[in-house]
Design brief:
single chain; mainly beta; ten-stranded parallel β-sheet; 35 strands; 8% helix
Length: 423
Amino acid sequence: MKLIKSIFFAVLISLGLNANATVRYVSATGTGNGTSWADASGDLQAMIDASTAGDSVWVKGGTYIPVNYPTGSTGGTSPRDYAFLTKDQVNIFGSFAGTETSLTQRDKATRDANPSILSGDIGAAGDDSDNTYHVIITVLDSNPILDGFKITKGRNLYGKSITIEGQSIDSYFGAGLHNYKSNINVTNCNFVDNGIAAGKGGAIYNYFCSPIITDCIFENNRAGNGAGISNNVFCYPLITGCLFYQNAGGNGGAIWNQATANSTIINSTFTGNTAAFGSVVDNFQISDANFINCTIYNNQSTSGGPFSLYQSGLTISNSILWSNPGSAQGTITHSIVEGGFVGVGNISSNPEFLNTADLIGSDGLWNTADDGLTLLNCSPAINSGNIADNSTSFDITGATREQHGAIDMGAYEKDNLAVSINK
């Protein structure tokens, strides 16, 4: 089913690209001018800079580090200010084998076997003190695509900034991706081991924008506010099909929303995240989060529960909340809530997960059918959701979301026809 979803999105992307646009090719060992895989360039940023609206950059599997200050920036004083920089309406696709002639050939298996890694570890290996403050930056861009990368080892720091396109980019925010007013589409990206135990946005910092974040993994990121994602000031992200695993924040282990930042989170899983306040989400100052068909399991806060609200709201539907110490809150409907919670369609029965001792499953891949938080055939979550709350075609694994006129609670959909036969 994941293959069907990958092809579906690849076709949509292909339809959205200009048929007359240029594709430039990048390989970590390339020495050419980027006109083909055989003549691939080794300079990712140069290929981005050479592109114009509608063009694409295809990046072969390998590791890439920024080697210059962001294009056109001022104020950089050390290599730690280096970063990759996106460009308006330029699409950057990673994790190719290096033989593809169409995006549909870069399926999930190909991406898994050929990861393109953007790393901030530019100095001594394993020495965080000389890593870049940001791995990648996007500023005032209209709908660029970032698809198919592992983004890692960004290490933010207080008290520095550079200027890009007249905007101040603070080194304290967005160690993986710093997004300043760009409506970027981030898809099939893994944000792993970014940030420090301070600042905002260990993996992603969004400011005054409406990004679309789809099928991404956020793992082992750190921050003071929003170890996974920090959304700030009139920010409206749509987050779909994502995993947040073992991220650690002071406020908002997975997500922090501040100052009219309203997040919509669909078909996503949150597990193992920790924080002082709001291990899953901390909504602060007139901000909201809307969780639909999410699985929220075993997240730990030292103060309160998985959600922290200050002058803010929270809505949850078609979801599973289990083994999260502390009280649930907000408006919750058609969900499993451990200990019970007043709301239409809520139940408190054990969700009957497949195997909580092996969350990733025997295939070693997240967001697949053998994940430990998929549902057993006896799960009360099956067919218990509210179809009216659903707006997507697929679950987190790529399985069809509505089956035979019903929908499950949580991020994983079970084939309910098979369940009814087995019963």
